């Protein structure tokens, strides 16, 4: 029988199992080796990232100041200067791309996720959206060059925004569709039971409930578009001045980095490092915002 010293009632012949972990046993040893290997691979993969960030903060931080956000890019032998026009141009073109891709992407996601998700058109559209996620960015620039630049007869911020919207669209569509699928069916059934129409269910229930999942995808798409350079070479080109119209060549941070990094002038190279740091910080801000929004959803 059990007593105070042996409340469970184990006898000498019936001892409790040893629950202490022996690291030299087969499974424990294999688990430890695989865990250590995963840590080693993760550290090796992080070395290039942190080395690039270190170089950006060291090289770009030395030139960081208020003047780089307000002044114009300098000529070859000039000293000082900045890239305020490139920051404005980048934000304007990303804004144009967002105004094009976000409404179209969300409407397409509504059709794919709610209106007719099992139709042949939806299946083909979903497949094409997934294909576009791996679409070479330079081909988006070629498309916008043929569709907008040749039609308008000039490089412009509009053409750059169209090229970036092509790259943003599949990310917005796929993330929005998945977010809408996560909306509980009982919420939709309750709305239908109250007499709501399908359009009312979509605009009053599905979209507001799925919004915390849609926003991270939108922000990630915006962050990716902000760092693109190849499409802008074909569409926006570059300018050394602040933009006065959407229908003229427009500066961007990525093209400024491309141009200045190949120049034999120390001042331009320093500005290229500083512009790289600013661009990384912009992308980092959008990624952090997407993480915060997704955490709020959970």
In a nutshell, what does this entry contain?
With 298 residues, the protein is mainly alpha-helical.
CATH topology of the domain at 86-253: MetI-like fold
What is the terminal separation in angstroms?
50 Å
**Structural class of the secondary structure composition?**
mainly alpha
Q: Tell me which CATH architecture of the domain at 86-253 applies here.
A: Orthogonal Bundle
Beta content: under 5%
Q: Which regions have little confidence, pLDDT < 50, spanning 5+ residues?
A: none
Fraction in helix: 55-70%
Give the oligomer, counting copies of the same chain as homo and different chains as hetero. single chain
User: What's the rounded overall pLDDT mean?
Assistant: 84
CATH level 1 name of the domain at 86-253: Mainly Alpha
Order of helices and strands: HHHHHHHHHH
Main beta-sheet annotation: none
Let me know the CATH homologous superfamily of the domain at 86-253: MetI-like
Q: Characterize the overall form.
A: globular
| Count of individual beta strands | 0
Please tally the helical runs, counting DSSP H or I stretches of 4 or more residues. Answer: 10
Report the radius of gyration as a whole number of Å: 27 Å
Write the layout of secondary structure elements.
Blueprint: H1 26-61, H2 84-115, H3 120-132, H4 137-152, H5 157-181, H6 185-193, H7 198-226, H8 230-235, H9 253-261, H10 266-297
């Amino acid at each position: 029988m059990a007593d105070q010293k042996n409340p469970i009632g184990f006898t000498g012949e019936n001892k409790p199992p040893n629950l202490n972990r022996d690291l030299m046993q087969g499974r424990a040893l294999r688990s430890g080796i695989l865990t250590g290997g995963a840590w080693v691979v993760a550290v090796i993969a992080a070395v290039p990232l942190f080395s690039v960030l270190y170089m950006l903060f060291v090289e770009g931080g030395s030139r960081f100041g208020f003047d780089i956000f307000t002044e114009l890019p300098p000529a070859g032998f000039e000293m000082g200067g900045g890239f305020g026009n490139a920051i404005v141009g980048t934000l304007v073109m990303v804004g144009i791309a967002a105004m094009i891709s976000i409404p179209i992407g969300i409407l397409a996601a509504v059709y794919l996720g709610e209106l007719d998700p099992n139709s042949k058109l939806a299946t083909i559209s979903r497949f094409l959206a997934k294909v576009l996620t791996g679409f070479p960015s330079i081909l988006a620039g070629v498309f916008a060059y043929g569709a907008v630049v040749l039609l308008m007869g000039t490089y412009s911020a509009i053409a750059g925004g169209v090229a970036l919207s092509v790259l943003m669209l599949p990310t917005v569509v796929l993330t929005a569709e998945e977010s809408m699928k996560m909306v509980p069916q009982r919420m939709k059934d309750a709305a239908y039971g109250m007499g709501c129409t399908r359009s009312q269910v979509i605009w009053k229930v599905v979209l507001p409930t799925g919004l915390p999942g849609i926003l991270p995808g939108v922000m990630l798409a915006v962050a990716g578009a902000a760092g693109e350079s190849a499409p802008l070479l074909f569409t926006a080109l570059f300018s050394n001045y602040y933009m006065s119209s959407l229908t003229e060549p427009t500066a961007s941070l990525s093209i400024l980095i491309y141009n200045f990094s190949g120049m034999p002038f120390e001042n331009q190279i320093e500005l290229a490092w500083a512009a790289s740091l600013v661009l990384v910080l912009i992308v980092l801000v959008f990624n952090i915002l997407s993480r915060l929004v997704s955490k709020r959803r959970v």
